[in-house]
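Ticket #4471: structure output looks truncated?

Reporter: J.K.
Steps to reproduce: submitted the chain below (185 residues) through the standard prediction queue, then opened the result file.
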Amino acid sequence: MPNRKEIEMVKIAEIEIEKFAKEWQKTPYLWESETDVHAELYIRIKSSLRKKKFLPEKGNPYGDLIDEEYFDWIYCKPKTYIKKANYPDIVIYKDMGKKHRVGDRENEPMLWVCEIKYVTDWSSQLSKESVQSDIIKLKGLLKRKKGGVDCACYLILRRHIPLSKTIIKTLEGINKKVHLYHYAV
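Returned output as attached by the reporter:
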């Protein structure tokens, strides 16, 4: 269960998603691909968390690299070593207040995970299978006792592509713990 600080961090991340989506609706062609969206949101969320003093200031806050090291709290496309949940789009990890051995393959408890779908009229498709795969990933992470996630978010951005009835039905089955954001132009 997230504490107050963690709840505030999740709010900051989701406020950044909403602000970005409003900008995207005005000028959607500034972001060509889903990777552009990942990068944009990652930087915005990380910057906002840093401004609110949830993350260290710029520079190397951890000193020289040593055998044990603190890792950052937010990552874009990290490898999780969790079956059917590798490489979530954006992750904010929980602060466990301890150092980790460099190279450990732990699935540290995650505070927040966001999966993103960006669909354009020329560069990608939004298939029922891809949506189901993302939902399975998020639900699986929410159910895990160790190395799972407290909060999840699913963002869909569509440029000139309608949602099919099967995708709408799939989205209706999304877990109540997953915040769904859906924007279209």
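Triage note (M.O.): checked the attachment and the full token line is present. The first strand starts at residue 68 and ends at 69.
Status: closed, working as intended.
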